[in-house]
Amino acid sequence: MATVTYDHATRIYPGTERPAVDALNLHIEDGEFLVLVGPSGCGKSTSLRMLAGLEDVNGGHIYIGDRDVTDVQPKDRDIAMVFQNYALYPHMSVADNMGFALKIAGTPKAEIRQRVEEAAKILDLSEYLDRKPKALSGGQRQRVAMGRAIVRQPQVFLMDEPLSNLDAKLRVQTRTQIASLQRRLGVTTVYVTHDQTEALTMGDRIAVLKDGLLQQVGTPREMYDTPANIFVAGFIGSPAMNIGTFDVKDGRAQVGHATVPLDRSVISKLTDADNGKVSIGFRPEALDVVGEGTEDAFQIQVNLVEELGSDAFIYGDLKSSSADLHSGSSDQVIVRVDPRRTPMKGDTIHVTIKTGQAHVFSAATGERLS
Amino acid sequence: MEQLQIMSATPDSALLDLPWRLPLAEWPADVLAALPRGISRHVVRFVRLGGRVLAIKEISESVAFREYELLRQLRKLEIPAVLPVGVVTGRKDDDGEPLEAALVTEHLAFSLPYRAVFSQAVRPDTATRLIDALAVLLVRLHLVGFYWGDVSLSNTLFRRDADQFAAYLVDAETGDLHRELSPGQRSYDLDLARTNIIGELMDLAAGELLDEDVDEIGIGNSLVERYTELWEALTGVEAFHADERWRVAARIESLNDLGFDVGELAITTDIDGTTVQIQPKVVDAGHHSRRLLRLTGLDVQDNQARRLLNDLDSYRAATDRQEDDEQLVAHDWLQTVFQPTVRAVPRELRRKLEPAQLFHEILDHRWFISEKAQRDVPMPEATASYVENVLRHRPDEKAILGLAPGEEDPEADHFHLST
Q1: pLDDT tens readout for residues A258-291
Q2: pTM to 2 decimals?
Q3: Which of A53, A84, A142 is the closest to B184 by Cβ?
Q4: How far is CA A197 from CA A6, A181, A222, B188, in A?
Q5: Parallel, antiparallel or unpaired: strands A326-327 and A242-249
Q6: I need a labelling partner for B127 at 20 to 30 A (CA). Which of A180, B121, B138, B309 fits?
């Protein structure tokens, strides 16, 4: 097992000006489950394929452990792309289905059997080893496919959107299985997805990419609580964080009728480029519904109430403000409210941001200031 | 409310008549042409619709659209692959529950899955010929920048091509089209191909469908060798002395022999002009089939075309018309040799093989009986003998699909990921 290190790793496709992956620096610990996440075209799959040896590295280096693999052939990197090949062979036993790659590599029979048995134990397949795949359920067959990668005992597992062709229900089920299996095996794993929920639920750490640039890397909690910039703030979390840009007056941001106090350290970081404005973000659950006239409260006009049983969300507009305040790709503000005390469509509610739960970003650069 | 949507470049309203409200696995036998053999990742069914056989695969919507687009692009690049027909989305069952999207492709007439080739136990070098065909396909895909991601015998269909096979890509689900492939992508694809092929052959061996003498690993390795040779022949740099310029023409000729045309050749010299370097930059497969198409309008596979062109050449020599316009001679050959031969085969037996393949086999047969009889057997006589002694005993290969509806699959069921 091993660490993985990207050291200023860069990939530029021929005929393009902007690198697909731009000087990526990332250190993945031995046994860690790291998720690369970002919107389409952000460079996450390219980064994974650079590690696999499927993309040339035009600048920088990639290490597996202490070994520089930048120019090593894919098959000599000691990695396994999981789920690449899950065709099962009907005439071969489950054990042979799992171990045939070792047989090709000339591994002695006794060792193959031993490795297959170990993998089968972890995968709960021990009692099926001498049966044909026909006798297995769909889920068990999928575990045989994972077993193929496990018996090779690679240093690193690579997974590129492995759940993308499963239906929604099986996706959730398999996601949990992969995460728990990885923890039991302790093999360093790099996992690519465009789905931030998948990233939050599976990864030890998450690396968010955009336009070929690493935006932030951290634990799911860190990414959620202290996003490094507006992009990460808007990308991580569902429903997305509400973000808007407001004027700053006398050390306070002007949000509709109300003002939001800004920390002195934040004010001191403002530059001329910010032009007297800041961007403020707050998650749907970071608001308290308060009575009319409460200090620092701003007003939301309710357009829609979404009841989900355990939760209720309000979609609305900030009143008395021309500022563009909205959540993710919707053009509205989202507020989580007590599902037993929901307002009506057309009502106006008063809300305040819970202490310490406002995220302040530079209006000019999008970088975190708070 | 009905929300079924069919996206198709060649819309066929008959598609609407299929029972889209049922999960594919539950489609009634009367609409099915066949079920696939073996274990596959998704549910796949074959249906017969308006004279065509369609393959329908249930798959998530985004993957279906992606594969459909890739197959369309491969068609544009003239890569031998199955023809994409369309994507069906918005399916719902009678309770209004959503069903998975479906990718529809047209089944390739006269194609053979590798399991069918082996179960016929034709010739001892069958495996080698399949591997050669797959190596050519893989090289062609890599030349246009297609990374397959899951090269295997089961993701390929084979068509008889004179005494060889021609390989067609069937499954592009894991593929990706790039501007150009890196050496790493090519080598990974090739390594995966080797592993998959050995696995598939080991599986045939375990099912006692493969001759015991067959060396599975050796065959897998031979794919790597064949691929590497062909790649080198098509893309390698060759350097020689400036007074050996005939080597330019020789290189082009050797590529033609391999069935490729040179679209663009880079020629560079060193500063004092003593050394010349050449490297093919654009090569297109189908050298012989293009030439035959130009001369006769017949659209056939490359080795079949080579065979037909050879016969055309002998016709030209035998009728002493070397000085005549090549196209005129080709027209006469078509009218007096090729078409009468194919027409002499009884109609009900013609669906056993493609016309060009029939003609090739008749030529082979004529050679065989001429040698035996120690005289030149004329074509009509050879054709009659071939029909009686060979073709009647051959299986019908127009649509070898798998199992008839209701037939028990000896090779297990269908691998569907949802349990």
Answers
A1: 888 899 999 999 999 999 999 999 999 999 999 9
A2: 0.81
A3: A53
A4: 25, 19, 15, 31
A5: antiparallel
A6: B309
